[in-house]
Amino acid sequence: MAKRSSVSEFGYMTWRAISLGVAALLVLAMGCRANPVVATVDGDPLTFESDVQPIVARSCAYIGCHGREGMPLVLYAVDYTRFRDPEGVVDPSTAKLDERELIPWEITHNRLALAARAGPEDPGGEKLLMRLIPLEEGGIPHAAVVVYENPDHPDMATLRAWLETVDAL
Fold it and tell me: Which domain holds residue 19?
């Protein structure tokens, strides 16, 4: 059987080749939406996904906190805010979000957004961590929200360990 070519006998690309090329460009364009996080720092992605993202989901990314559009720090979590077109337009040609797990872009966004809060200006993320505890425990004001009652909470140790992996790129 002869191998089919994407170029016709006249030297023109076939419609199939052109449509595949256009589809690839569309996928690239959709995947290259402007990322609201311009990362100059990053932290360990594997530790973030396995250990930190569950903390973000249960303690930070809900509607009353960072789980809504329009906040200075937007974090994504299943059952709360998900990455969608900012205009709310649903494009039926794109894959439907699996509502049981985040897409890789959402996890990357969360990781880079938190890493951007630390880095050179906040080595080890101490200021970020201090926003999570009460003022009387040495905390920093955080919209009158106390996430953990004391700095010895196990989640604080997990966050601290990940924040120590944050480096300038």
Answer: 1-32
